[in-house]
Amino acid sequence: MDTIKQFSIFVENRQGKMAELTRLIADAGIDVRSLSLADTRDFGILRIIVNKPDETEQLLTEHGWTFKVTKVIGVKVPDIPGGVATVLERLDAANINVEYMYAFVNRKPGEADMIFRVDDRNAALAALREGNIAVLTAEEAYDI
Amino acid sequence: MAKFWREDIETMSSEDMRALQSERLRKQVRHVYDNVPYYRNMMDNKGVAPDDIQSVDDLKKLPFLSKADLREAYPYGLLAVPLTDCVRIHSTSGTTGKRVVAFYTQHDVDLWEDCCARAITAAGGGADDVVQVAYGYGLFTGGAGLHGGSHKVGSLTLPMSSGNTERQIQFIQDLGATVLCCTPSYAAYIGETIHDMGLSPDDLQLKAGIFGAEPWTEEMRRSIEKSLGIKAYDIYGLTEISGPGVAFECCEQKGMHINEDHFIAEIIDPETGEVLPDGTVGELVFTSITKEAFPLLRYRTRDLCVLTRGKCACGRTLVKMAKPMGRSDDMMIIRGVNVFQSQIETVLIEQGYSPNYLIEVDRVNNTDTLDISVEMTAEQFSDKMKDLQDTERELASAITAMLGIRPKVHLVSPKTIARSEGKAVRVIDRRKLHD
Lengths: 144, 435
Description:
The structure holds two protein chains of two kinds.
Chain A: E1 4-12, H1 17-27, E2 32-39, E3 43-50, H2 53-62, E4 67-78, H3 83-93, E5 98-103, E6 111-118, H4 121-130, E7 135-136, H5 138-142
Chain B: H1 7-10, H2 14-35, H3 37-46, H4 67-72, E1 86-91, E2 101-105, H5 106-122, E3 130-133, H6 141-153, E4 156-159, H7 165-174, E5 179-182, H8 184-196, E6 208-212, H9 218-228, E7 231-237, E8 244-249, E9 256-258, E10 263-268, E11 282-288, E12 299-305, E13 307-308, E14 320-321, E15 326-327, E16 331-334, E17 337-340, H10 341-350, E18 357-364, E19 367-375, H11 385-403, E20 408-412, E21 427-429
Parallel strand pairs in B: 3-4, 3-5, 5-6, 6-7, 18-21, 19-20
Antiparallel strand pairs in B: 1-2, 7-8, 8-9, 9-14, 10-11, 11-12, 12-15, 13-14, 16-17, 18-19
């Protein structure tokens, strides 16, 4: 399975909101595998990938957080100069639009994993395969 | 320099004034009853005949008119003369649906300008003065009223309209303007700009300012007076009754004299409609007793204020109204524009938002700010930042189209805006407009 579930959570730019959210997740025994924050003056969107997506969805719903489950893809980017550029060029050549991307925490040497949110996941996966660029499976991402 | 524009009227004894008002009221009630079917029906329904109104004491028998009546009767329902006798219209700035349009005969324009001439004279303006009118011209009554008043007193009139601040300052300097007429927030802005340009009040000939059309504080008055080196005078009016000059301030700066030979003022309990004694806070109600085209009887302004009688140290005997201290409805005046909470709520609901919102009004650097926090539903949330920013922008544009001024919109999570038991607090006005 090559698509990864990401949680995009609306967080108002108020003191303590981020701590409240991360504490909620921690206390449920959920491990955040990767995290990215996009923010404006008023609010932020916290994007996380977790080891237990189903439990997380239930937890956020129960506690009234505004969120969306978004499907993203993970790419094993070669950890060499030009690694990211090669991936982006490959996607660009296939006319795939990248909405956003961020680094994924990974402890394997020589590999720098990244998360991509694209407009057409299947086309993106095909383009990467064609370019012999390895993708991260959901199992790898969740570290199951 | 003349102290009064119409000394006979402005210093008239209270007995004579009452007699004059009673005579004019009798005539006016007959005029309205005969020519305005809308009001005639209201009187008939209340069982009041024109002959029941013999003096000012009988005023309380007449039915009230409200803004809702003006909208219902739009555009010609309250017109009391043939349209061919009218020479002009003006219209209100704020709109909840239909605008309010007021009509004027030449006689109505003359009496209105005469009221403005009294205001300019009370502020020390005369034939030797240069009056810069920086109120907006057009449908808004501000520009036209002070412009006409300035002509009446024979001042050199600079019809600037609002905006283009550097040109305003250039004219104040080059043409030696002595009296500035505009909104208080614009006066404050001109004062700041003059300072930023490295000029001081000593470089200017200005001696007085006539400022109105929006609420302002005593603190703001002192700050404007200092920045422009002038004495600042308040002026009050509303399009429905004529425009600026319904009441004006004298050199005492302690309340505004109402031109009660044209407009009878009452203070009522906004809940019961009962007339309250002088010195009590209540809703201000005006009756036009001289206007021909658009003569409103017992029009409820929704402004809360106090009336005081007695001879003023300036010599005038005209009844004084305090600066309005609030509204008996949900109207706010933001950047000179009338804004109703209900207008904002209408847009939010039309655009599919929850009725849980918070309106915050403040004044930063003498400019009003309007911030609206809106709860977003889970369906409206997107994980793309651009989508959320577009959502905020689209909502701000829809509100701008309704109000005429642009708010800042803030999306917040569902259920984060405080629910209160009973009447929800949806508006927080942090401007200190009332001392």
